[in-house]
Amino acid sequence: MKKFNNIYQIFIVLIVFSLTSTIAMAGVLDGKTYTGPTGKLGKAANGEEEISFMNGNFYSVGCAEWGFGEAAYSEKVAGDAISFEAVTTSPKHGKIVWAGTVKGNKVDATYKWTKKGLFGTRKQDKWFKGTLK
To answer: What is the pTM of this model?
Structure first.
């Protein structure tokens, strides 16, 4: 009987750990996708972007073509605004640091792309303004 109790206790601990891990990974923004114009900071839009949040990860459709995958994101709720940050990386094209704020159905974000190369580090600062899809 004691062996059964130990197995039962281990089973319960594993279930609780699994549930809390899943809950901790899910964010307020999870399941949301935003689309809209993007461009270099200080300049007009020169393209469209789509970003999404799923299972605690951030993903940029526009940056995926350059090998940037999904990455964990952090978020902070303050009143009616949700700020987020994420860092995506590409094996060949460096890293992109994302920071933005969601209010209602709109997102306003900036992202800084940095790529180290043979002749120094190349940087681009960009903006994105999206609407909930």
So the answer is: 0.80
